[in-house]
Amino acid sequence: MSGNTFFNQIQSKIKSGFLVLIHFLTKLPENIKKFNFSSFWSLIKANNPIKKIRYRAFRWIIYGIIGIFLLFLAIDQNLFWLFGYSPTFHDIKNPEYSIASEIYSSDGKLIGKFYKENRTPVEFKDLPPNLLNALVSTEDSRFYQHSGIDFFSFFSSIWSTAKGDKRGGSTITQQLAKNLYETRKKKSTGLLGNIPVLRTSIYKLKEWITALKIERVYSKNQILALYLNTVGFGNNTFGIKVASRRYFNKLPLELSTVESALLVGMLKAPSTYNPITNPEKALSRRNTVLGQMVKNHALTDSAYKQLYKIPIHLMPGEMHQEEEESYIRSAVEYFVKNWAHKNGYDIYSDGLKIYTSIDSRMQNHAEEAVSEKMKMLQNRLNGQMRGQVPWVDENGNEDKNFLNELLQRIPEYQRLKTHYKNPDSLNKFLNTPHRMKVFTWKGEKDTSFSTMDSLAYYATILQTGLLSYDPVSGYIKAWVGGINDHYFHFDHVLQSKRQPGSTFKPFVYLAAIDNGYSPCDKITDKAVTISYKDITDGKNKTWSPKNADWKFTGRDMSLRWALGRSCNSVTAQLTDKIGADKVVKYAHLLGIKSDLIPVPSIGLGPFDVSLYDMVGAYGTFLNHGNLTKPLLVTKIVDQDGSTIDEFTANPVKVISEETAWLMLYMLQGGIQEPGGTSQALWEYDLWKNGNEIAGKTGTSSNYSDAWYIGITKDLVTGVWVGAEDPSIHFRTSQSGEGSHTALPIFGSYMEKLYHDPKSGIKEGKFPKLKSKIKTKYICPNILPKKDTLGLDSTKSLIPLDTAGSIL
User: Fold this and answer.
1) Residue 57, CA distances (Å) to 6, 7, 62, 65, 122 in order
2) Residue-wise over 516-528: b if at least 16 C-beta within 10 A, else e?
3) Which of 374, 470, 675, 706 has the fewest CB atoms below 10 angstroms from its CB?
């Protein structure tokens, strides 16, 4: 009999003993209930069969085996809390490991993830043979011969270590026990775990027991799949599916032999053998794995000689984009966090699939439009600020304390103050340059900046927000929270609230129209002084509004013309007639959540609002008077593919269909009326097939905030542009008004959609009224052939008939 055969027989006997032990542990709770320890002990003392054995050595061997049995029993049951927690069979059958939740667009594109450990599981059938051969050949060549513990490898690793060649003897199953059930974590440490050498022995024995349990529950193929879903590949990458994406941008089943060998080679030390940071060591380790495959007859010598020479080819680009912070990812988290808490899910570990309403094609067009126009706007702002102090107050004077106030708003500043207790030391640190990479529109730039330099630089960067949604379904089609989600995490769609300027005016005209006014009613554009009682302090005050160009035409303007021209004087007078409190009421009715004070200037947008709320409010005009809040998340699916929850818009009737339709007509005045503030849209290719667009520009004081909200037959799209701090802004109306900043982004975005036949967005007229309007509106031409402003009267007011059609 050969030595190896003899050893295999011995191992088989030991294996059988362990299986009996595991079977006993399985039935232990039931046996304990039935067992009478007092009677058993009396019986043992009276009839100890071991004492009858003639040879003392054999007696001690039997006592040793019983001792080992009792030790395993004590460890598994955590006797007297000495050994810590051990996985039960229920734990083995229901492994709990952190799985990334994935975010998908409406057209099935993966657009983001939530994870503690970036992991997406894969089934055995999706694992290629070359990967499995590489793994078994390298990590556990006797994997299919043992039942969780390989005593041959265990004793040979001890012998090798004694000779100075340290190598592991753990099987794949033991490694799975350690990785998946965290047998070495603190929760698995009992009282004896505080003793260093003893702790290691307990860990090892616990892994043996757990490995035997795993082998009783799972097949060999299932164990391999579990193992490959569990192991880490560096860079917060867990599991073979995510690793395949990160390093080769492909699915596991598509991996070649050399790619499989490279990934398996990383398992020994993911950082050391990382092909991105240590390509030479990774190549050497990969070839070692190929050699192991030859040794274990999983690869021929001739194939090895060919594969050995192949260099490493990585394609890591796409995965990088999926894993970075993004505005949509943050928005999804905002919308599902309460749902997850209420329903007992953790989006960072439960492997959910979260489906959004985002259309990936429309999202790309929105991002392209933002990138193109914001780069141009930044160059314009830089040109205006050249040679001037960028931050100024409301009177145009330098704000000398700007940077210090900005510094104090940064959370890191408090830590620095605690660390540098001496103000001079802190000041030196803040003004000492060091190497850093900064955002530029020409790409990432490596430069030397002090902390204060960096603050000053980033303060002058213009930001934007874009939200585009279908108000009928409520589905958000595109969401751009800023200019770069890697450098700027703050979202300007949902998180930011800024002064809306004249985009708030439609709420004034809505209140008027809904309370008996007509688009044709006229108010004179003139200087006025409005008296009112300030509800905040109870004092009587006056307010004299100015138009954007500081001029008054003296014209009798229809409400449509006044809104289209964005006339502050008419808006203020109309607010005074209907009451500022009604304006606040209608704004809130249409979904504006901000606190609003009913002051005479309410229509000029003095109170901060979010782009998200404003776009939703404008959607009411297109959706026949129904308020449908923009919806981002549509469905959530669990790991098994079962739908947990679905979300649909819940439209609420807030204004009549007639009023909503008239507001669309009013908002078209920005394009059709003389001097309309939306007329820059004529420069874009948006007007085929009789296309109709309604919209409103908005600009806050000092051009700190620029807005445009546009409505087409399919979409409502809002855009905001400005710096993070209102002290940074354009200096002239020709540069900073909404018509010159936010509107071009809208125009470019819609142009891209119309030029893309696959976008599903086409030109056309607004939907017709579902019922006839109740009031007859006859709007005569109020301008002479050539008025004093030199405007063409053919673009004057358009009469309506009772069917809601243009006469």
Assistant:
1) 21, 21, 9, 12, 52
2) ebbbbbbbebeeb
3) 675
Pairing type for strands 706-711 and 694-699 reads antiparallel
What whole-number distance in Å separates Cα of residue 354 and Cα of residue 25? Answer: 41
Listing DSSP states for 434-462 in one string gives EEEEE--TTS-EEEEE-HHHHHHHHHT-E
Element (H, E) at 19: helix 3-34
Helix and strand tally (H, E) in the chain?
29, 20
Residue type, 676: G
CA torsion, points 299, 302, 304, 309, in degrees to nearest 10?
-160
Burial (Cβ within 10 Å: 0-12, 13-18, ≥19) of residue 63:
exposed
Instruction: Look up residue 79 and give its DSSP letter.
Output: G
Size of the chain, expressed as the number of residues it contains: 807
Q: What is the pLDDT of residue 71?
A: 59
Based on the number of CB atoms within 10 Å of its own CB, is 647 exposed (0-12), middle (13-18) or buried (19 or more)? middle
Fold of the domain spanning 464-795: Beta-lactamase (3.40.710)
Q: How far apart are CA 614 and CA 592, in angstroms?
A: 7
Residue 636, SS3?
strand
Helix or strand holding residue 152 (H, E): helix 151-162
CA dist 124 and 236 (Å) reads 23
Q: Using CB atoms within 10 A of its CB, is residue 447 exposed (0-12), middle (13-18) or buried (19+)?
A: middle
Encoded tokens for 719: 């855009």
Do 95 and 228 contact (CB within 8 A), yes or no? no
Residue with tokens 């063409």: 792
SS3 content of the chain, % helix, strand, coil (to 5): 50, 10, 40
Q: For the segment 474-533, what is each residue's pLDDT rounded down to a tens digit?
A: 999 999 999 999 899 999 999 999 999 999 999 999 999 999 999 999 999 999 999 998
Residues paired with residue 498 on neighbouring β-strands, in sequence order: 609
Listed residue (706, 800, 717, 765) closest to 377, CA to CA: 706
Mean pLDDT, consecutive 10-residue stretches, the chain (807 aa), reads: 50 52 52 53 55 60 60 55 58 69 94 83 92 93 81 60 57 81 52 54 68 84 90 86 90 94 93 90 95 93 92 68 72 94 88 96 98 97 90 83 89 82 89 93 93 94 98 97 93 96 98 94 96 87 93 95 97 97 98 96 97 98 97 94 94 96 96 95 96 97 94 98 94 90 98 96 92 70 35 37 34
> At 417, is the secondary structure helix, strand, or coil?
helix
- What residues does each domain of the chain span? 93-327, 391-459, 464-795
Q: Residue 149 CA to chain centroid, in angstroms? A: 43
Cα 309–chain centre separation:
41
CA atoms within 13 A on the CB side of 320: 8
**What is d(CA 246, CA 147) in angstroms, rounded to the nearest whole number?**
33
Among the CATH numbers 1.25.40.10, 1.10.3810.10, 3.40.50.2000, 3.10.290.10, which is that of 93-327? 1.10.3810.10
Strand 118-119 relative to strand 237-238: parallel, antiparallel, unpaired?
parallel
Please give the Cα distance from 47 to 41 (Å, whole number): 10
561 neighbors 524 (Cβ within 8 angstroms): no
Report the amino acid identity of residue 764: G
3-state SS, residue 380: helix
Tell me 426's DSSP state. H
